[in-house]
Specification:
alpha/beta; eight-stranded mixed β-sheet; two-stranded antiparallel sheet; 9 helices
Length: 271
């Protein structure tokens, strides 16, 4: 087909193409590789407003915009105690953004959480003793960037996740959107798959992506939270788990076209 089209448009090239078959084969292979390359992002526009939702593989900290970081309800961040893994997202946040200056990060968190209700823990645990409700959000500003640390799980006295559930993730997302609406700006919002690893939930990575889309679509039915929501899938998750971008694209397009139809199956209908 390539030879026929090229020869028709440029007749003088036919002998050259015929005598250089390896060049033609190389072009065809390059085209095949390009067409069959794995999809690493999908983008859709939300109906009736200048707002976009994108799903993309990458490192959360490489994207422009305000970043969401999942954390525990006591807002423990010190990786030196062993309670918080340095490989976790909040561990990377402490390392990359605060250079492991935990006292500075704790001081910023204290200021951000000032005035919010909490329970005092006296169970002999290491780390912080103030336990905030799930869904509590602390907005931090560091290195000319905004970060939202949202409590998505409780830690027991041994530093392990307890009482985690997908309902908690749904609730925390809802509280996050409220915080963004009240104190955020219109810049892009970058969010990972909150709770998909360390909360030990059985839902797939695809389920977490869909839940973020659902929750955000509901929050934006009557208002605009930001110009763009970027849902980030880590390269490790992309390599290890079956993430179907074609299906996610269809799902995303449907939710962006009909956001008013989004509803949680376990949420009671209004009378």
């Amino acid at each position: 087909l390539l030879i026929n089209v090229t020869s028709f448009v440029l007749p003088a090239t036919k002998p050259y193409l015929s005598d250089n078959s390896y060049l033609l084969i190389g072009v065809i292979v390059a085209m095949a590789v390009w067409v069959s390359r794995p999809r690493l992002s999908v983008l859709s526009n939300v109906k009736n407003c200048d707002m976009q939702i994108e799903i993309q593989v990458g490192n959360l900290f490489d994207f422009r915009g305000a970043c969401v970081i999942g954390t525990n309800s006591t807002f423990d961040v010190d990786t030196s105690t062993g309670v918080i893994s340095p490989n976790s997202l909040q561990g990377q946040f402490a390392s990359r953004v605060y250079k492991n200056k935990f006292s500075e990060l704790d001081a910023d968190l204290e200021r951000a959480l000032n005035g919010l209700g909490f329970d005092e823990l006296n169970d002999g645990r290491e780390g912080k003793k103030k336990k905030y409700p799930l869904g509590t959000v602390a907005q931090l500003r560091k290195s000319n960037k905004i970060f939202y640390m949202v409590a998505i799980a409780n830690l027991n006295s041994h530093g392990s996740i307890e009482d985690s559930s997908f309902d908690n993730i749904q609730h925390s997302l809802s509280e996050l959107w409220k915080k963004v609406e009240s104190v955020g700006n219109i810049d892009p919002l970058v969010i990972p798959l909150l709770g998909s690893l360390r909360c030990r939930l059985k839902q797939s990575r695809n389920d977490f992506v869909k839940e973020i889309i659902n929750s955000y679509a509901v929050a934006c039915i009557d208002k605009k939270l930001c110009e763009k929501l970027i849902i980030v899938i880590s390269p490790q998750d992309y390599r290890k788990h079956e993430i179907d971008f074609e299906k996610l694209k269809s799902y995303l397009n449907c939710k962006c076209t009909f956001p008013e139809l989004t509803a949680y199956p376990n949420k009671p209908e209004s009378p």
